[in-house]
Amino acid sequence: MATAAVATMKVAQVSKPGAGFQIVEREIPEPSAGQVRIKVQACGVCHSDVLTVDGLWPGIEYPRIPGHEVAGLIDAVGAGVSTWTKGQRVGVGWHGGHDNTCLECRRGDFRNCRNLKIAGVSYDGGYQQYMLAPVEALVAIPEGLNDAEAAPLLCAGITTYNALRHSGAFPGDLVAVQGIGGLGHLGVQFANKFGYKVAAIGRGPGNAELARTLGATVYIDSNATNAAEELQKLGGAKAILATAPNSKAMSELIDGLGPNGKFIVVGAAFDPIEVTPIQLINGSKSIQGWAAGAPADSEDTLRFAELSGVRPMIEIYPLEKAAEAYARMLSGKAEFRVVLTM
Fold first, then answer.
1. How far apart are CA 21 and CA 13, in angstroms?
2. Beta pairing class for 237-242 and 174-178
3. Are 49 and 20 a contacting pair, CB within 8 Å?
4. Which among 64, 65, 90 is positioned nearest to 75, based on CA atoms?
5. Has residue 237 been placed in a domain?
6. Where are the alpha helices (DSSP H) in 1-140?
7. Neighbours of 95 (CB within 10 A)
8. What pLDDT sits at residue 75?
9. Sign of torsion, CA 64 69 72 75?
10. CATH number of domain containing 116
11. Is position 162 within any domain?
12. Closest C-alpha to 127, from 335, 341, 324, 313
């Protein structure tokens, strides 16, 4: 008796840290209880994927498929799944699941779950044609956003949107965005749509016109002037969103805060930010780190983007060119988010 053919899919996997990408065929998986299978339409290529590619996150099991900016369609549902349906447009972002039992989850602070799962790190992510995801990670995608636009909003988008809306700044306040890159170009747009007076800070004059197009009121070239002093001339920033992963540049900006100002760090760097206690004490200033957010926050981000017209600037590559797309992202020359399509 002939054996039925096994349905397979293409995936871009990392076999071990530093080995780069392999395009291989795998069997299409079946969802377990509490999971759905997503037919991936698009997946953003994020700098945080380096955690998987280079083995920088403790305990990653290999081979592993990166990707935590996933947009697609539910293709199958596992046992016990009743609130999500086949054919529904969904995404998965950095927040790939939570345990519902730790103290933070019991208090509703799912973003800081002590056993947080990350798509592409804890389990296989979106660099594949089909992926499995737990229902607590799912994000509903509104019809007004296409898949390639929605994907980067599930990491870069929610990170900047969520940080800004919790910054304490009100419409009309001066808010600065450091860096006009993958995070910053979205941060400037969100800050503008929130009604802030937006100061975009970049290195060199090259991004001045783009920053104003994105919604900046003023552009500050930190190579040509002291950016902190320029912010003080404008009255001091109520919030500074630091998106470029450069701790030295961040340290130089802290004096640009106004009274009760908040310095919000979303650009991930490993060297220390330098600040003196007196810099924080004078004016009651603060520094806060901010991670992305829970799926409900992602849905807020997507709906706001749909309504306000905020969109990521993207470069699209096919899944088969995952290595090329990843290298483009790492080069820092992409404008501004790289997206794989299936």
1. 5
2. parallel
3. no
4. 90
5. yes
6. 50-53, 103-106
7. 28
8. 97
9. positive
10. 3.90.180.10
11. no
12. 341
Residue type at 204 in one-letter notation: G
Quick check: 313 and 335 in contact, CB under 8 A? Answer: yes
Residue 147, CB half-sphere, CA atoms under 13 Å: how many? Answer: 21
Residue 129 maps to a domain: yes
| pLDDT, tens digit (0-9, with 9 covering 90-100), for 92-132 | 999 999 999 999 999 999 999 999 999 999 999 999 999 99
Task: Determine the Cα–Cα distance for residues 163 and 239; give it in Å rounded to an integer.
Answer: 10
DSSP conformation letters of 108-120: T-GGG-TT---BT
Residues 147 and 17 in one domain: yes
Strand partners, 121: none
DSSP state, residue 254: G
Residue bearing tokens 């926050």: 297
Same domain, 127 and 230: no
Are both 173 and 227 inside the same structural domain? Answer: yes
Q: What is the pTM of this model?
A: 0.96
Domain-embedded: residue 159:
no
| 146 vs 150: CA distance, rounded Å | 6
Structurally, the chain folds into a number of domains equal to 2
Instruction: Indicate which CATH number applies to the domain containing 245.
Output: 3.40.50.720
- Map residue 6 onto helix, strand or coil: coil
Q: Which helix (H) or strand (E) holds 268?
A: none
What is the average pLDDT across 293-316?
98
**What is the structure's pLDDT at 5?**
74
